Predict the structure.
Amino acid sequence: VARRVRSDVEIHGREITLTRAEADFFGGRLKGSFDARVSAEPSYHLQAQFERVKLGALADATATLRGRWAGEASGLMEITAGGIGRGKLLASLEGSGTLSARDLEFTGVDLSADAADSAAPRAKSRFASAKARFSLSRVTVWLEELRLEDHAGGFEGEGSVRFSRALEVRLRPV
């Protein structure tokens, strides 16, 4: 949830522009700009930088991810969307960005365990740092140049996460 939002706002006819926007965002900061063109087929454009966002707080905002993530993330993203209604907005989402995280922890899979034990519900994976480049299209987040690092090495890889919650990630030890 964004709190203490501050921004310069311009309205020209059916165009709304927020510039120099800043907000508290899940324990961190969010900065950027947002453009909306309100018409029969509206369009939206977001450019944002996020810093020190608490992944646990962000995950806890959704029922399916509650209690499954921890750590702190920063990065950049640019997203466009258009249309009216949830379905059209999701189907039209396009974007890209970068992400770096520290003290990353996720529950439900242990990447250091044997395959038979790795998917236990209470299994955890922990990494000192993570970096990724991502793109967004066709209701899928595409992970590119993913790197997870801990004291023993880590993993690199790529993959995708669909909005339907289907996960397909290929990791290689480094």
About this structure: DSSP finds two helices and ten strands in the chain. Residues 58 and 143 are 19 Å apart (CA to CA). Residues 86-92 form the longest helix (7 residues). Helices lie at 55-60, 86-92.
